[in-house]
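dude i think i finally got it to work??
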Amino acid sequence: MRRFLCLLCLAGLLSACSSLPQSGNTAQDSGQHWRLEGKLGITTPKESVSGFVSWKQNDGQYLINVSGPLGSGAIEIEGTPLMITLRQGNREISSESPEALIYDQLGWFFPVRHLQYWVQGQVSPYAAIDKQTLNGQRLEHLWQDNWEVEYFRWDEYHQLPSKIRISQGDWRFMLVIKQWNQG
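look at this
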């Protein structure tokens, strides 16, 4: 059950970030029709879990599928800027606030409003920058709102990150994006 809650949390984090308004000039800003495929992992003080993610964004609507190895613990997340619904088997949880859903399910808060920017290699407009390092025009390392965001790899074709670690204290979230598709 604990692994399900961690995967549920990660899925909620990813889905919530896509419901925020976009800004900046990345390739994803044009039309907001994109898809990513990849792996995700979470390390807490008590355990580590990993899974696969498929995220399809169509303007303000998104559909995200998260599953563990060999399809175990599959979760489907569907939403708009006004509502998020998470499904696993016959279980369904809906909320108007992804942050509240995560807090209610796990008792902790993740900086959801920043994630959509961080996943695209951008600074979030919702908090001051504590510190950042650049490699040319790309973010390499960012400290914002007491979180550390590290960019290990970039997709050269799409000019978007392909490996990102977000951490604060003993909490670490790793997103490895295997494929970006746009249009």
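Confidence is low (pLDDT under 50) at residues 15-31.
im so relieved honestly
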